[in-house]
Amino acid sequence: MDHFPTNWGRPRNDGFDAYGTYPIAQRPYNGLGNDVFSEGVQRTQQPIVTGTSVLAIKYKDGVMMSADNLASYGSLARFKDIQRLHPVGTNTIIGAGGDMSDFQYIQALLDDLMVEEFTEGDGDGHALGPGEIHEYLSQVMYARRSKMDPLWNSLIVGGVKDGKRFLSYVDLLGTTYSASTLATGYGSYIAQPLLRKAVEGNEDNITEEEAVKILEQSMKVLFYRDARSLNKYQIAKITSDGVAISESRSVDTQWSFADGIRGYGAQTQ
Amino acid sequence: MFRNTYDSDNTVFSPQGRLHQVEYALEAVKQGSAAVGLRSKTHSILLALKRSTGELASYQQKMFRIDDHVGIAIAGLTSDARVLSNFMRQQAMSSKMAFNRPVPVNRLVSAIADKAQVNTQEYGRRPYGVGFLVIGQDQSGPHLYEFSPSGNSYEYYAMSIGARSQSAKTYLEKHYESFADCSLEDLIKHGLHALRETLQQDKDLNVNNTSIGIVGAPSVHEKTTNVSFRILEGETIQPFLDTMVPKDAPAAAPAPPASTDEDVQMAE
Amino acid sequence: MTSIGTGYDLSASTYSPDGRIFQVEYANKAVENSGQDLSRSTAIGLRVKDGIILAVEKLVHSKLLIPEANRRIQTLDRHLGLATAGLLADGRQLANKARDESANFRDSFRSPAPVKYIADRLGSYIQVYTLYSSVRPFGISTIIGGVDQDGPSLFVIEPSGVFFGYHGAAVGKGRQLAKTELEKLKLSDLSMRQAVLEAARIIYLVHDDSKEKTFELEMSWVGNDTNGLHVPVPKDLLSEAEQKAKAALEDFE
């Protein structure tokens, strides 16, 4: 049923997608025909199947990262068992938000790269670490955006090499930056302040258990506030021992009415 | 005109399965003046003998810097060396660009070796007429490689190429086991002694005809804190030349090998 | 009929009156005794129950060479290895081509290339170099081994471009003796570790002490023991195999 009163009593127009159920590019165009450029080269103008936030922090033993298992199709929770944390080599993990098919392409690209390293290097002791992989990805992302054909992702690259922690970000524009806490997507608004408060200046003291707690807490907040998130996520840690990605897990949440909760809304006591 | 039917072209195997053009290219390397390379646990060094065409001419360039961590010494056709060293510089830059990583030395050497192989298999080209000694320092420590026009490359503890290099090689084979724990000064001293073996009887090494290339921490004789590849020439090498044992001091200097100039001749 | 001086042996694009291509035959000679790069060596490959073992007799032409630094067996992909006898530089060129082929297959199908596919592509590539006067044939015999969906497989490619599958393969100078030794083995019953020991023994046996300089044994393997990765045989196993090979050689003599 059409819930928009302004449409009632008018002839039905199946060409108009009143609910925005399709991604913009697939919506029927209701304008007056095509302009002269409509037959021109078409590039990616928006992501289609998307993942939301990735969170990452440095802690005592290395780097920890988390991302949920959801790939959304517009607002539809389309795929609920997608892994968005991807190991590269023995001491690097990349986490991806944004377009999942572009991310799969990036995974293939990195796999080719690792095969090349494996064969040409042939155990010569020059394995690519997180720093090298981040540099490579940033060159790929910047080259693609310069062709006006970006890979629509925000990526976090984390790892440990030669006892040093590495954590850095790169996105569809080729922008990079490093910090001891990183978050992509909605997480950069909601979770980043929480992560900073918990981690900054404390990177060398946070234990593995504490790091897991910090991420759990942030993932929970994100699940409450981000409509494109899922209460099913994974945590990856990278230490000098290598890479470990957890099974999917969830946190306890509370969705009852807020009337009993103190300190919320208009309540004063 | 030709020595045999099978030597005018690099796309022809001889009945014995040899490639004469490639073998002749290896002879071109021996026409160039000698270069010597040595490696210790902490350093790799190059030493080369520069020729001059006359009193009014400058001395030739025998060493090239490829990147902060890599340098080469050449023997043979200098113009071929310039082409190959430009290629090496490009490889070094693209490694920095793509991965922010100094190119691993072994891969750099393999890259030019693979490039040189093509010139031994296809018509209308000639094999490169130059040999390299490549030194470099990377994550796995100091290295020394030899590259030759046949498209082969090998890693060595110490090596010499160029005219009368066999004499230097004989010296190196006698002493190489001590190189690993040498100080930079002792390593250079060994290198100079080896290089001197390639000289004719009446000649000696001096500040004009000798180049020294180094990767690794600086020597006490250097006025630098630089650990990357550098070429020492002119007056700066005098302190190193001073460390050499004079030629005619019989006991301290290693016995010169019997043969002196056999490999200046063409093979066969 | 002798080939020399007839004029029929100067180009790969020329047949002799009796239908031979002498340049390809000379390329085979290069496999056995090429002069300039001291590669008159033997390479063998063993296909056993759950893996492949490659081994080469690597001649050491100078004591200034750094042991183990100059590898002769090459890795083409995670699951593929290649050993050659003949011109070393040609071997490297072919390995690079094989890596391209394997990477292309991976890009097209998102799965590792079957060993036979790579052998087929390389065979075709090598054959092209027997057709024209503007190139010379490859002066190498190649053993390519790996593990794919159908288990381990092993191929030999000759300078003519022809290739066959084998249980046990030998190329290069000592291939006759090596083949005789391989034929004595029950290859399909051997474990990978046993095969490593046998491969080492055969390489030590075929090495001709009187004629050749010293040599280094280089071995790699791929199979169940290596998680399907083509990697060098670990040091401890390698030295165990070398010791047993030396002991067996003394018994033999």
Automatic annotation (TrEMBL), chain A:
Superkingdom of source: Eukaryota
Which keywords appear in this protein's UniProt record, sorted alphabetically? Answer: Cytoplasm, Nucleus, Proteasome
Major location category of this protein: cytoplasm
Annotated Pfam families: Proteasome
Cite the InterPro entries for this sequence. Answer: Ntn_hydrolases_N, Proteasome_beta4, Proteasome_sua/b, Proteasome_suB-type
One of the protein's GO biological processes: proteolysis involved in protein catabolic process
Give the subcellular location. Answer: Cytoplasm; Nucleus
* Cellular-component GO terms for this entry: cytoplasm; nucleus; proteasome core complex, beta-subunit complex
PANTHER family from the entry? METALLOPROTEASE TLDD, PROTEASOME SUBUNIT BETA
Which family does the record assign? Belongs to the peptidase T1B family.
Functional description taken from the UniProt entry: Non-catalytic component of the proteasome.
**Name of the protein this chain belongs to:** Proteasome subunit beta
From TrEMBL, chain B:
SUPFAM superfamilies reported for this sequence: N-terminal nucleophile aminohydrolases (Ntn hydrolases)
Write down the superkingdom of origin.
Eukaryota
User: Which region ranges are annotated with the description Disordered?
Assistant: 247-268
Read off the Gene3D superfamilies from this record: Glutamine Phosphoribosylpyrophosphate, subunit 1, domain 1
**GO CC terms, sorted:** cytoplasm; nucleus; proteasome core complex, alpha-subunit complex
In the record, biological process GO terms are: ubiquitin-dependent protein catabolic process
UniProt subcellular location: Cytoplasm; Nucleus
Where is the Proteasome alpha-type subunits domain positioned along the sequence?
6-28
UniProt name for this protein? Proteasome subunit alpha type
Task: Give the originating organism.
Answer: Lentinula guzmanii
UniProtKB/TrEMBL annotation, chain C:
Where is the signal peptide, in residue numbers? Answer: none
- Compartment(s) where it occurs, according to its Swiss-Prot or TrEMBL record: Cytoplasm; Nucleus
The protein's matches in SMART domains, at most eight in alphabetical order, are given as: Proteasome_A_N
User: Which terms are listed as keywords in the entry?
Assistant: Cytoplasm, Nucleus, Proteasome
Q: Which GO terms of the cellular component aspect does the record hold?
A: cytoplasm; nucleus; proteasome core complex, alpha-subunit complex
What InterPro entries does the record point to?
A: Ntn_hydrolases_N, Proteasome_alpha, Proteasome_alpha-type, Proteasome_asu_N, Proteasome_sua/b
What Pfam family is a match, any one?
Answer: Proteasome
Swiss-Prot/TrEMBL GO biological process terms: ubiquitin-dependent protein catabolic process
Ranges for domain Proteasome alpha-type subunits come to 8-30
Q: What is its main location?
A: cytoplasm
Q: How does it assemble?
A: The 26S proteasome consists of a 20S proteasome core and two 19S regulatory subunits.
Which family does the record claim for this protein? Belongs to the peptidase T1A family.
Briefly, what is this protein's role? The proteasome is a multicatalytic proteinase complex which is characterized by its ability to cleave peptides with Arg, Phe, Tyr, Leu, and Glu adjacent to the leaving group at neutral or slightly basic pH. The proteasome has an ATP-dependent proteolytic activity.
Q: What protein am I looking at?
A: Proteasome subunit alpha type
